[in-house]
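Hello K.,

You asked for the raw outputs rather than the summary table, so here they are, unedited. I folded two proteins back to back in the same session to keep the settings identical. This is the first:
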Amino acid sequence: MRILLINQFYPPDVAPTGKYLHDLAQVLVQRGHQVKVICSRRSYDGGRTFPACEIMDGVEILRLPATGFGRRGFIGKLADYATFYFPLLAVLLHERPRPDLILCLTTPPYVGVLGKLAAKWHHCRHAHWIMDLYPDVMFAHGLSQGGWSLKFLQWLTRFQLRGANPVFALGPVMAENVARYCAKSDARIAKEEPVHSVPLWSDSELSAAPETGPSPLRIERGWAAEETVFLYSGNMGLGHRFQEFLGAAKTLGLSGPRWVFSGGGKRRAEIEAFAKSNPESRINFLEYVPRAQLRAHLASGDVHLASLDAGWQGLMVPSKLQGSFAVGRPVLFVGGDRCETARWIQESGGGWVVAENDADGLLAAIRQGLDPEERSKRGRAALDFARQHFQATSNCIRLAELLEIPE
């Protein structure tokens, strides 16, 4: 088959969606398909410009011109989206030879609408890989849910998804939410089963960290071998919760673990402000680490932290759990229990799930996390689960097989 893959970002850009798409593209090439990716020339942060055309691991890449404001404000993001949409539509309509399948991700939002229109023009199949569920994430983000905007955006989502074959979601809860847009009526959701749940995977270079011996990175960072490090690594975005972790850090004070927040995002500034006002909380900060250092970085923490506000359940599935489990670290999660992260932790036994605002429950979980034997037991369970469910090759093969099924 001749397959078109569409996403705004693609390697060597660092955006995770592009990395996952490249993993799938390589498997499709290995299975004998002709694969072409259409993406933007501008990087996720707007700071780099990539070649317009190249071949990478057998994948043909066409990069389109667009503005590069990156993450610098809402208007800038809209400009980046708009200036990508227009050349994309022109390229899709003039694509030769005719594709057999067009697969769209969800960056920028509603790019799948263009994919569907192009599929109709070329009389081919269209498919969708849902990384974030729009418009629901926009409402969770604070957009008003009233009036014509809600109805129009919901209609637009139904338009782009209906008739797609297949549609992928990142987990079972997200799949249920996506299915409501795919089905012709709520009564037919269970019968139609239009959405396939395929989890994301951990980086292929991640592996279990040794349980004994000093970590060179911990020594470099000045962390004592006998202290316990609770590590949050990744985006500190609006959909995540931090007040419970910060409250526990303040309550435990100098007698508690070391709390390390590594990465960036819109919420980092408020965590830094809290740490400045509460120096006894033992909170430290790190920047994002290079990919080459990721395994050592994740292994440097004893317990990993994750969170998701209940309002975002089933709308996005943070992929940090996969990396934590891959290096054999248990995860302490705060948030609603109707989400993939909570379910995978409970199913695996690889950590703890604490409800929002449950300060006592969180302190109890922290006490267990301070026990080396308990950490080791849950870390082994996490690693076993990752080996069964979060492997790049097997998950990409599953995606490829579903894409290969004719209508």
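The second followed immediately with the same parameters:
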Amino acid sequence: MNTEAQSTQRKQGLPLDLSKSELRREAVARRDAQSAVEVKEKSYSIEQLLFDYEPFAAAKCVMFYYSFRSEVRTAEMIRRALGENKKVCLPKVNREKRELEIYFVSDPESELIPGIWGILEPDTVRCQRAHPEDLNVIICPGTAFDRAGNRLGYGGGYYDRFMRSVPERIHFIGLAFSVQIFDEIPASESDVKVHTVVTEDEIILPG
């Protein structure tokens, strides 16, 4: 960890050299501490920046995640993308294979059902299977991000494995509140960086 990042952690009252699990808990606690009104308003600001961002605006097929608990809300983004005639895919967790499967969704109200951990997932009876080659953009959840594009997930590795398997042309965009942005987070060779992070305040483009 560099000196600047250490100084930032001191100012934030964080111990130096946090492990992934410790940083994950800290980031989720910050996110959970926001009021419902804050989450709604900040999510709307993130939506506006995202939809004006050229790689997303130009995308014909986007993979979203369906937000859960205090995550950046995506339900309105999904509906808006469909209204703008984008194809939208959502993931379904395959626990046996420890991987994500993706399906096209055209009517979230009728085509999504609670899956593992209670997160809404595509109903495979109603939704058509999609493939990574169909995608232009992947919208990634995360507990924390840094300005180098490193992403800290929830510990299962599902997104990292999926993102390693897709064509290189696909643009990865992380959504996060500003309280989830750190100057530096732990990363290993198996972790996949995002190309962009959108918060309520800015679009972060890792150098």
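Residues 1-13 have pLDDT under 50 and may be disordered.

Happy to rerun anything if the numbers look odd on your end.

Regards,
P.
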